[in-house]
Design brief:
about 450 residues, alpha/beta, Rossmann fold, 10-stranded mixed beta sheet, 3-stranded mixed beta sheet, 13 helices, about 15% strand, globular
């Protein structure tokens, strides 16, 4: 049943769907356009009357148009979705999803302007777990993470991360009005979204805003030093045809030109063997004071973390055969030449980017930590657990397009039920149901 909620900025109404009430496209900050573009987010202006939140908002400008097929985009993108399972309840656990996409692509709004289909369907997750589900957009690529601050104080640093802190503050202040417990908020995210969670765990302004973390396939070391970010910014502006003496010219740059430059800079960096995401956050000494892989170890927040068995298949499957003998040297791996080269290369890359950094954190993590491994043989490449976790193939990409049939295979369906049960149990109780890594060295296998 539709319910009007009073937030700190005004009243909103949602839409009943699939045993839940959804509040879609809630503005959690002012639109970062005009004088506010490339600036840290500001509180939204209060509104009169009841704001209709029955349709999802716009997504951030996409970094690589060839990857995601999300077309409803723009700089005015700071919107949130809240999904509440039916029933008059209070004190519900809250799960907050931070999407991945190399800090450059993805979103949580409507896939296209003329459709009501959302990138992620939160209803099944909320209904099965009895948790409130939340997701939100944050600024990406050039708009969220390029370091232009060293060229002009007109530009703030790490705007995408500040968007996340602003969203979490909105949740903290308002989630009780939806029936949620502001003291029991669990962040969960994948890839760059998971790496952002590690960063948020180390940021003083963000740390009090959530209680637990689920870190899925984090690109743990995808952060730049200030010096590295300055070098990348100069290279990137050159691709845009913008002088470092006039960085303000990016304020009027065409989005299509941004996408073209994004693709070029990504290719250039990969050819050099660089595996760090191009638009990674910067260790700025303020938002992020040290590499999260080091700083997060002192956290006492309960953490559930894991990887997929064949993460790097997403990247190595497309490499031509003639290139395979040169790949180990390019990616600074010790993979020997010989049979099954592609398989061994992928396994070594998975170990380097995802598994080893995760186990390094787990070995000296101050708080309670649990580890899982996802080994579903049909879909085990990087990010392929996301559709299984949410219970539907909704996120569009260049391989599958916008799914006309969102249903999963029966075995993936059964696995998804298990995943949601564990994620919900962790959100509610802070324990997924198996031995802590530091006590038992147990790794729970999902297959």
């Amino acid at each position: 049943m539709e319910k009007v909620i009073e937030t700190t900025y005004g009243k909103i109404s949602g839409i009943p769907r699939n045993g839940c009430c959804e509040y879609l496209g809630i503005p959690y900050a002012k639109a970062p356009v005009g004088d506010l573009s490339f600036r840290h987010p500001k509180d939204p202006a209060p509104w009169d009357g009841v704001l209709d939140c029955s349709r999802g908002g716009r997504n951030s400008v996409q970094g690589y148009s060839s990857r995601h097929l999300i077309s409803f985009t723009g700089q005015d993108c700071l919107y949130m979705n809240i999904c509440v399972p039916d029933g008059e309840k209070t004190g519900l656990p809250v799960l907050v999803w931070i999407h991945g996409g190399s800090y450059a692509t993805g979103g949580t709004g409507r896939i296209s302007e003329n459709s009501d289909n959302m990138v992620y369907d939160l209803t099944r997750f909320a209904k099965e777990t009895g948790c409130i589900l939340v997701d939100f957009n944050y600024r990406l690529n050039l708009y969220g993470f390029l370091n232009l601050n060293f060229l002009s104080d007109r530009f703030d640093m790490n705007c995408g991360l500040y968007d996340q802190v602003k969203a979490l503050g909105f949740i903290k202040d308002n989630i009780s009005a939806f029936g949620g417990d502001p003291g029991n908020v669990t962040l969960f995210g994948q890839s760059s979204g998971a790496a952002c969670i590690l960063a948020l765990m180390t940021i003083p302004e963000a740390e009090p805003l959530f209680a637990k973390a689920i870190v899925q396939s984090a690109c743990i070391d995808s952060f730049w030093t200030p010096e590295q970010s300055m070098e990348l910014t100069k290279e990137y502006l050159g691709l845009l045809g913008i002088s470092t003496d006039r960085p303000e010219d990016v304020l009027s740059i065409d989005a299509a030109k941004v996408c073209k430059a994004n693709r070029k800079i990504k290719i250039r960096r990969r050819i050099k063997g660089e595996v760090t995401c191009v638009f990674s956050p910067v260790i700025d000494g303020m938002t992020i004071r040290d590499f999260p892989s080091e700083a997060v170890r002192s956290s006492s927040k309960p953490m559930l973390t894991g990887t997929l068995m064949h993460e790097a298949d997403l990247f190595t499957d497309g490499l031509p055969d003639f290139f395979l003998p040169f790949a180990p040297r390019l990616f600074k791996l010790d993979t020997p030449q010989g049979k099954n080269m592609r398989r061994r290369l992928s396994d070594d890359l998975t170990q380097k980017i995802y598994r080893k950094p995760m186990f390094d954190i787990a070995s000296s993590y101050n708080g309670n930590i649990w580890i899982y491994e996802y080994d579903y043989e049909k879909h085990c490449r990087h990010a392929e657990e996301v559709a299984v976790l949410f219970g539907s193939r909704t996120e569009p990409d260049s391989r599958s397009g916008v799914p006309s049939d969102s249903r999963l295979e029966p075995d993936a369906e059964a696995l998804g039920i298990k995943l949601r049960s564990v994620w919900g149990k962790f959100a509610r109780y802070g324990n997924p149901g198996w031995g802590m890594y530091k006590d038992s060295r147990e790794i729970h296998i999902f297959k």
